[in-house]
Amino acid sequence: MNKWFAAHIVMYVEFKTESQTTFPVWENIVLINANSDDEAFGKAERKGLESEGDDGGSFEWEGLPARWVFAGVRKLTLCKNSEERPGDGTEITYIQMRVRSKNSLKSMPSYTTLPTGISILMLMQEWSCICQMGKRIFSIGKPLRISLTRVS
């Protein structure tokens, strides 16, 4: 029976002709319909590989010729009620966080509460588990810096 998965596909920008000191990274979350974890993981990898490229030579980043590169599938999550087609309000993925106190929950920034032009840096650690080839592989994440900026 088919199930719905959320695949976290990581892509980055690589310059074609210049060296880089930083790499812009995207984590695209894509819905995958598959019979098993292995099939879903394979579909996610294929989707990432298909997304590589330079848009026929026209893609630029910061005015320089560049290309998208598939970095890997960071996380594969079985959607809640996975046998039903996802719809309005379906939980498709999640991020687990830990805060130091209950009061810090009140001060957690969200995009809607940021004043215009203000940047906030959050540190977050995520633990993920993916299934590949019938084996569970646990990946303990390093702290992840997230910068939220509200521009308008």
Structural class of the secondary elements? Answer: mainly beta
Number of strands: 8
Task: Measure the end-to-end span.
Answer: 46 Å
Strand content: 35-45%
Cα shape: flat
The oligomeric status of these chains comes to single chain
Residue windows where pLDDT falls under 50 for at least 5 positions = 119-152
Mean pLDDT value: 76
Order of strands in the sheet with most strands: 2-1-4-3
H/E series:
EEHEEHEEEE
Major sheet attributes: 4 strands, antiparallel
Total tally of structural domains: 2
Tally of alpha and pi helices: 2
Fraction of residues in helix: 10-25%
Radius of gyration: 18 Å
Your description of this structure?
With 152 residues, the chain is mainly beta. The protein folds into 2 domains: 1-82, no CATH class; 95-152, no CATH class. It has 2 helices and 8 strands, in the order ββαββαββββ. The strands form 3 sheets. The protein has a 4-stranded antiparallel β-sheet, with helices on one face. The longest helix is centred in the N-terminal third of the chain and has 14 residues, at 37-50.
Short description:
The protein is mostly beta strands and 152 residues long.
List key phrases describing it:
single chain, about 150 residues, mainly beta, four-stranded antiparallel sheet, about 10% helix, disordered C terminus
Layout of secondary structure:
Layout: E1 3-15, E2 25-34, H1 37-50, E3 60-61, E4 64-78, H2 102-106, E5 119-124, E6 127-132, E7 135-140, E8 144-149
